[in-house]
Amino acid sequence: MLFNSFAFLLVFLPASLMLHWVVEQFRPQWRLPLLLLLSFLFYSYWDWRFTPLLAVSILVNWFVAQAFLRTRQGVLITLALVGNLIVLGVFKYFNFFTGWADLIPGIAIPKWDIGLPLGISFFTFHHVMYLVDLKAGRAPRYGLVRYALYIAFFPQVLAGPLVRWSEIMHQFEERPYKRPDAAERFGRGLMLLTFGLVKKVFISDPLAEYVNPIFEQASRGSVSVAEAWQGTLGFTFQIYFDFSGYTDMALGMALMLGIVLPPNFDRPYNATSLQDFWRRWHMTLSRFLRDYLYIPLGGSRNGMAVQLCALLATMALGGLWHGAGLTFVAWGMAHGLGLATGAIWRRAGLRMPAAAGWVLTMLFVMFAWVLFRAPNFDAALRIYEGLFGLAPLGTAFKWRAIAIAAAVACLGPTAWAVAKLMPPRRSIAVGFAVVLLAVLFQIGDAANYEFIYFQF
Fold first, then answer.
1. Where are the domains of the chain?
2. Cis? peptide before 375, omega within 30° of 0
């Protein structure tokens, strides 16, 4: 059930909000079980075969947590973490690793043609965050319903944001519609939902029409200079508006249900260094990689050599997390090398003008996106040949949608900032209602693309 579909927007979401309001008003003790039921119904709509996997994952990890709290045997947490990563590896990386094993003479492992459970990377990382913090003494005991809702909450189960238990668990205890600002919060949530839909339907999806044919052509043969730049620039802004649009919708729906989720983007294409970019892009994943991978690997407090190795390993694994392919690993390693270069630059005490930093960062991020988007290295090489002028010049450069997207991404405020600052006025509400209606008409008239991050 896509967030940008009639089934979700006209049926599931209104029914969920209505049921939630009724239960919160008259049977508040049923609120969390209802949200959990709705979350499982939402997840089951995609592919009911994977619903037992989500349920078993929650039950096993919760029982392990209870056993650890009784026995204080750290090996239980270690085994649970290994088990979670094995499950993720089997479903997401089995064919990737068997492909490498097949290169060894005498070994032939059959491929496992099974679908990838949606959201498995995200709910696995939620388990990891809670279990690691539990072992460290930072996380308390939670009941099964609360823990299950933390893992499966439908606005964020498929593609984040990655929410720490400490950011959401205490909100489950609240009576959101008893707050004096309940109506205002609901309205701001609806604004965020509308902003996210506009990003997806009016910016990201039209950019896909600019991007997809070019990368498909690159997988078959050469592309021109104009096509290479169109595809690269188009994808640079497509992925931003696609993923930030999804995040805005997730934050908006959660806010309408009385839950505040952390923002995930802060104008990343305004960054003046690669380090700054990762503080603004997919902020909850960056925070996860820093706290649960980079720092345990040594971080920046054990010498420059350890720091550089930790950066490379963290970003390579972060790239692999995005997809079971060497192009994703190469994308992650490219960012690792870029971050390592920045660390050396800062250690040397060197400075760079902000304008030059922005240009270099933007070019680096754009060129790296080619590895992220290309289906294989051959296609990426053909795009790079076009970007560096090693291909026919070409003339068909479609720039209007790209220019609009670039202006909004680089000059406009975030949807979160606008929603927070917008005064609660009737005229503004009417304006958003008109925009939402326009989005619904566009959804009915155009092809609707799945969110890019659903594949991760």
1. 6-179, 183-455
2. no
Crossing angle for the helix pair 13-26 and 31-46, to the nearest 10 degrees: 160
Whether 328 and 311 have beta carbons less than 8 Å apart is answered as no
Give me the torsion for CA of 390, 396, 402, 403, rounded to 10°. Answer: 100
DSSP 120: H
Catalytic residue among 126, 282, 322, 335: 322
Segment 224-273, tens digit of pLDDT = 999 999 999 999 999 999 999 999 999 999 999 999 999 999 999 999 99
Q: Return the DSSP state at 29.
A: G
Q: Kindly report each contact of residues 131-137 with a partner whose C-beta sits within 8 Å and lies 24 or more positions away, as own/partner.
A: 131/61, 131/64, 131/65, 131/77, 131/80, 131/81, 131/84, 132/77, 132/81, 132/292, 133/164, 133/165, 133/166, 134/65, 134/68, 134/69, 134/77, 135/68, 135/74, 135/77
Sequence-separated (6 or more) residues with CB below 8 Å from residue 417: none
pLDDT, tens only, 380-393 = 999 999 999 999 99
335 catalytic per annotation: no
Chain segment 290-299, per-residue pLDDT in tens: 999 999 999 8
